[in-house]
Amino acid sequence: xxxxxxxxxxxxxxxxxxxxxxxxxxxxxxxxxxxxxxxxxxxxxxxxxxxxxxxxxxxxxxxxxxxxxxxxxxxxxxxxxxxxxxxxxxxxxxxxxxxxxxxxxxxxxxxxxxxxxxxxxxxxxxxxxxxxxxxxxxxxxxxxxxxxxxxxxxxxxxxxxxxxxxxxxxxxxxxxxxxxxxxxxxxxxxxxxxxxxxxxxxxxxxxxxxxxxxxxxxxxxxxxxxxxxxxxxxxxxxxxxxxxxxxxxxxxxxxxxxxxxxxxxxxxxxxxxxxxxxxxxxxxxxxxxxxxxxxxxxxxxxxxxxxxxxxxxxxxxxxxxxxxxxxxxxxxxxxxxxxxxxxxxxxxxxxxxxxxxxxxxxxxxxxxxxxxxxxxxxxxxxxxxxxxxxxxxxxxxxxxxxxxxxxxxxxxxxxxxxxxxxxxxxxxxxxxxxxxxxxxxxxxxxxxxxxxxxxx
Length: 456
Prior knowledge:
- There is one protein chain.
- With 456 residues, this protein is mostly helical.
- It has a single domain (12-436), classed as MFS general substrate transporter like domains (Growth Hormone, Chain: A), CATH 1.20.1250.20.
- 74% of the residues lie in helices and 0% in strands.
- α7 runs antiparallel to α14 (298-325), α12 runs antiparallel to α18 and α14 runs antiparallel to α15 (328-348).
- The N and C termini lie far apart (48 Å).
């Protein structure tokens, strides 16, 4: 009897490309985007709530407690990004996908009921610890579920929800300022900011684990089941062939990020994340207080911040086009260069109109840079280390975020030139590091294993 010919194993990239772009990916984008917008609200929250908290607890401008309140969320995110990123590579994306959002909602609501500054600082740290895990996991999930030709654009689309969160928190703060006294409004602001997380959690329950993560952990049947769910949602058919087993997985530890070819990528990416974050949060975490110190009334501060958030949208739109047209690396370097120039233009602005225009340019360029960076980063790490790598480099960003409020306070103490020179230098160094990575991932398949020492 003649043996039946064995079917050729199907690589995961081929399977995902054949399933195409359809309702599944758009739904995943909406779900992850909602949570990403909620995270933006939580991260930027203290900048809007600080005037009310200061009024409620008698905090002096630039006091240690005020700086701690701005720093606590970032400190939590530093720990959370590294921990949850590592855990997601060990146990799978979906479990962390659900847990971090749940904890973010709980701790976010706890902050709204904090009886004092110390309790509020603890609540904000724990909130940051929870939402720090959504970054590496959401971007790994999106990268691993989207066909190659669309991956870069979708990763920028996901990052663009940050602008939505910024617009919502600015509008919410403005609206509450018209209804309540600042000493009371901040509690409502913290409480309402947790609501999108609840909706995002419920929506996430229907999302399967990443087939790449499942396959790397030896769960071929579950990986195929996840692909079949994509096929049903998109109205396509999964080929009747076994999935190609990935190469043996590395031991998932942060130390693996510094072995062989990954070492250069990890170090340079960490510097890019650190520099961009230090400048971005150094400027924008203190911008509402800076505008307030220039004599703007609170409602005008919130309206101005809302306009700056709207300026982010065209930055994302252009980045989504450029990452596929000219590539991830060139787009990232270009936006960082414009950010460095924009910081000096902001320094030279001498009228309220010039301040608004130059800060809008900064908002446009910096968020475009973030969009390109979020598209580039997950494509540089292999599947067994993708969320570990994302967690590590984003942890470096959170380390910068912890430092940035102290440096950003220079904006309020009259050392504007020192602060903006430092931030412009950060953007310039980040641009040089991004170019130094020397790898373009546009149109390339996601790596499943660490490349040899002489690989690109």
